[in-house]
Each structure stands twice: as C-alpha cells, then as structure tokens.
Amino acid sequence: MSATEAAAAAPTVDVHAHVLLPEVEALVAALPGFAGARTLDARRNGPAALAVSGAMVRERLPRLTDPAVRLAAMDACGVDVQLVSPSPSHYHYWSDEPTAEKLYRLANEATAGHCAAAPGRLRGLGLVPLQHPALAVGALDHALAQGLLGVEISSHAPGRELSDPAYEPLWARAEERGALLFLHPFGCTLDERLDRWYLSNTVGQPTENAVALSHLIFSGVLDRHPGLKVLAAHGGGYLPTHIGRSDHAWSARPDAGAGCAHPPSHYLGRLYFDSLVHDPYVLRELVRVAGADRVLLGSDFPFDMGAADPVAALRAAGLPAAEFHAVRGANAAALLRKD
C-alpha cells in the first residue's frame, strides 16, 4: 500500500470540537468572582454579540451536551472521530486555588464521561488552571488518568504569558507523557476596541493565537521541549501567514533573536494547526509554511464560527490527494494514537 493509499484509509478526525459542561457552571455560578468575570466578558464582547451568542448556544445545546445528538451530527458530515474539548468558557481563570482544583477535576471527569458514550469515536481533552501554575502538573496528570489525551489551554492567564518560567514544569510533564496541549484562546485583551461587530472573536481569537505562539517560540520553550505537542486552534491565527515578519525581526534585531535558537518559521514545523481558517487560499498557505503533516482537520463543532462541513472546506483548498488525506485524518490518527 502506498503512502497516499494508507492516508486515504485513515478515519476522518475532527480535532476541534467542544462539549458544554453544565456541572462546571453550576460549581462557579454563586461565587463572587463569577460576576466580575461575566462583567469583563460583557465589556469585551458588547451587548449585541452576547445576545446573538446566547441564542446560538441555546439552539445548539443538544449537540454540545448529548453524545447521541453529537454522533448523529458527525455522521451527517462524514466525521468518524472527534477530539472533544470543554468549551473555553469553562476556563474560569479568575478562580482561587481550591475552586480551580474542584473545577479541573469536575471538567476532566465530565468530559471523560461524555466521551465514554462512544469511546471508539470520541476522544477528550481536559483543563488545567493556568492561573495557578503550581496546580498545572497535577491537573494534567488527572486528565490523563481519566483517559483523556491532554488538555486545552488559553493563550494566557491573568498576569502570565505562556513564556512565563512558572509553566516549565507543565511543559516538561506534557513532553514526558506525550500529552497534547490544545491552544484555544478565550477572550482578547484588546477589550472594548473589539466590542462591536463580533470583532472580539473575528479579530481577537487569531490575534491571541499569534501572540501566544510567539511567546512559546521567541522564549525558547520549543527549544527546551522539542517533543512538546502543541495544537493551535484557528490555524494558529495570524502568525503562520505573517511569519516572514517574525523571521526578519529575529535576524535583524538582537533583542528579538535572543531567546530562540532558530528563525521563528523553523518552529512551525514543530507545532500542529487545525484547518479552521475559513479561506481555501489561507489553508493552502498554512499547509505550505507548516507542512502537510502539521495541519489537522478542525471544525469548532458546533459553534457558529465553525465549519458546518469541515471536509468540504478542506476539499475546497485543492490540495494534492496525499496532503488532503493527511489533513483529513491521517495526521490526527498518528498524533492521537496512544501506546
């Protein structure tokens, strides 16, 4: 069997799909910090976005919570396997240490329970409290103990970027255990500048992706942990298609090049990216700069900013057959395989 034939035989795997966990929200709903977090969310998004998002989530709630409804939706768009991660709204990085520990345990166990309804088709990711780095390794270990494949993280925590040395134990443990880190932003620190026309998502998410990945690259995290498995949502945001500017800074300025051993473009081949870029030409460029073996099918199921038919969106890029099948499922099948 040729490499193309082997890739074509792989299942179709969607690595960007979410589950909503009502028990997590019930845990935090009465806590004082929750009101402040909701106020910040309202300020960042604006009233129009919140109204539309609320109605959208209510309409899609069965797909977010009921495994049977999820599986039927997967069948309808030809997806064999989903990698299910908690809705980023469950991060709650404002919570104190005791609450954060309760939250990650509840989220990890609930996600594992959701996936247990169809273990051959649903694999899961847990959460770690980035606001409390001392808890992060334990949270990762807990997620893996539930049979999850890794954890989902945001682009930053309050007062900490991903380049913060406090996260070194987390990167080391994830590398040691072969755990996947799914980088999915929630909220953008540009705040009210993006509070109209849903700019908080359309501009904010790819901005946060680019900033977070730049911190991992320029700080040398990927040099110190070359086996780290980081999967960036939304195609890595703005960074992959503008990586030339980062390379230029690295070569032209001693302050830019001081922290990492290679030009930033070198590290795109050490990262993974989902295919959710909403433009076939951008997807082709992502495959070109990162490599066809580093891009994985992603839909953001079942939210409205996702791809209702991710395979059709991938097909529109017109990739060669071997690359199409690699992105469609073969790359994910290899990445998510557990020894």
TrEMBL record:
Superkingdom classification of source: Bacteria
InterPro entries the record matches: ACMSD, Amidohydro-rel, Metal_Hydrolase
Keyword Lyase among UniProt keywords: yes
Keyword tags: Lyase
Stored Pfam families: Amidohydro_2
Amidohydrolase-related domain segment(s): 13-337
Gene3D superfamilies: Metal-dependent hydrolases (3.20.20.140)
A GO biological process held by the record: secondary metabolic process
Annotated Gene Ontology cellular component terms: cytoplasm
Transmembrane segments: none
Record carries keyword Lyase: yes
Single GO molecular function: carboxy-lyase activity
Name this protein carries in UniProt: Amidohydrolase-related domain-containing protein
